[in-house]
Design a protein that fits this description.
The strands form 7 sheets. The chain has a 4-stranded antiparallel β-sheet. A 4-stranded antiparallel β-sheet has the order 12-11-13-14. Strands 1-2 form a two-stranded antiparallel sheet. A hairpin with a 5-residue loop joins strand 7 and strand 8. The protein is α+β, with helices and mostly antiparallel strands and about 450 residues long. Helices cover about 45% and strands about 25% of the residues.
């Protein structure tokens, strides 16, 4: 229940911020163009909060359904307009200003993503160094020449200090089915260049988190002792009485040799009562613990809310922190936002031609789960999550689909070329088409959510 509440609250906070930022883009540019704003709404449906502000008496509304928002501007097609306010009507503005007002929403989504990634790169991300573990025999990784113990230094001349940065680079090239070069360093410090062919990897496998498996590369496994480190407040571990420093000896008479054994037992037993033998300060005792049930893309797993106790510097050489100075972080944030935008467009294109499955689309349920999980991990993960969603919102809103910002921009491009506005009848037909397309897309995403949720 706590996980569900956290997911819902995180989802509302994340989407509320992103929608507000998007609509503020429309609002801010419209105000600069002297368009009268009647309402700024975050959400749809029945107002939960309403306040009037400014000389234009603009309504600021927070509505019940937090799945979008809108900025209502003065428009003669919807209401009678006084003669002295005609010049402030949206449709009376020059084409360039109307184009800028509509484009500002998606543009602010990209700006938000840049700011979020900027903060992430400044704060820094802790991660495992990209040291190769087991290499599957006959895999494309083995064919490329990977061997256990190598560290991946760069992918196509871009430095990769962590496994996450390696995967980020590989994802982009996998979508393009590229053949790429990687620089690796062996245990003796000797560096060499390997050629890796990604053309045979299915996009669906990549989207489901099986990219490294498809390449045939494993991550080096650290033999951490089964000793409790930090315990999450109100988690199953704390409720059961586990404390920092406790050593796990066995679970239901199954001997535990290392942290990996312990994690396996916890993940494999969601909602199951486990009898755990522990060593606490040299005294052995038994406790009862029931792992919380957690829904993931891989299925239902157990979680107790505890991390491994650091092993006194023994494994420090396997970890690093990826962070950059302020200006460098800004440049990398811009590059990251651009890369994610292009990647989103390419994946959508692959879906249209059947090279990627529509099962990769996610709806509000899955997004809420990711929001809760990222918020649980920490601020950096939550900022990264919001940046990805913001990029997705920006790209999707620019698609030339009626009802979306991109559909209106398409009308303005046609108006620029033809010299006259798109007819009302054509706009009405476009709106009907847009409704059908968006309902179909939302239905597929929601169906995918239910499949992930209920298997």
């Amino acid at each position: 229940m706590i996980d569900i509440i956290q997911s819902v609250l995180s989802f509302i906070v994340a989407l509320g911020l992103l929608v507000t930022f998007h609509e503020f883009g429309h609002y801010w540019v419209a105000k600069k163009c002297d368009v009268k704003i009647l309402r700024f709404s975050v959400g749809f449906g029945r107002p939960l909060f309403k306040r009037v502000f400014g000389k234009d008496e603009t309504e600021f509304v927070i509505a019940a359904l937090p799945l979008g928002g809108y900025v209502k501007m003065l428009d003669e097609r919807e209401t009678d307009i006084r003669a002295d306010e005609k010049h402030r009507e949206f449709c009376q503005k020059p084409l360039s200003q109307r184009f800028a007002i509509v484009a500002a929403g998606p543009a602010f989504n990209f700006i938000f993503a840049i700011l979020a990634y900027w903060a992430v790169f400044i704060i820094g991300v802790n991660g495992l160094k990209p040291i190769v573990g087991d290499v599957s025999s006959g895999s494309i990784g083995a064919t490329a020449g990977f061997i256990k113990g190598q560290e991946i230094v760069s992918v196509d001349n871009v430095a990769t200090p962590t496994w996450m940065s390696v995967i980020d680079r590989l994802v982009n090239h996998t979508v393009n089915a590229d053949k790429i070069s990687l620089s690796v360093k062996d245990t003796y410090g000797v560096t060499q260049t390997l050629a890796l062919d990604l053309s045979s990897i299915a996009i669906d496998d990549m989207a489901e988190g099986r990219l490294l498996d498809s390449i045939g590369l494993g991550i080096v496994r650290l033999n951490l002792p089964a000793q409790i480190g930090e315990v999450v407040k109100n988690g199953a571990a704390e409720k059961a009485g586990l404390m920092e420093g406790d050593k796990i000896i066995q679970v239901d008479n199954v001997q535990i040799s290392n942290w990996s054994d312990w994690v396996t037992q916890v993940r494999s037993n969601p909602g199951v009562n486990l009898i755990v033998q522990i060593d606490r300060g040299g005294l052995e005792q038994f406790i009862s613990i029931t792992p919380e049930v957690l829904e993931t893309d891989e299925g239902v797993i157990g979680r107790i809310g505890a991390v491994a106790k650091p092993a006194s510097g023994k494994f420090d050489e396997y970890y690093t922190r990826e962070s950059y100075p302020v200006f460098t972080s800004l440049i990398k944030a811009i590059e990251k936002t651009w890369d994610m935008s292009i990647l989103t467009l390419k994946v959508l294109g692959k879906m249209l031609v059947g090279e990627a499955s529509v099962k990769n689309l996610s709806g509000p349920i899955t997004i809420a789960q990711y929001a809760g999980q990222s918020a649980d991990i920490g601020i950096v993960a939550f900022l990264s999550f919001m940046a990805i969603v913001s990029v997705s919102l920006g790209v999707l809103n620019l698609l030339p689909v009626p009802l979306l910002d991109g559909g209106h921009l398409l009308y303005y491009i046609i108006e620029f070329i033809s010299g006259k506005p798109v007819s009302d009848s054509m706009q009405i037909w476009g709106q009907q088409l847009g409704i059908v397309l968006l309902l179909g897309l939302m239905s597929i995403a929601f169906y995918n959510d239910l499949v992930r949720l209920f298997g």
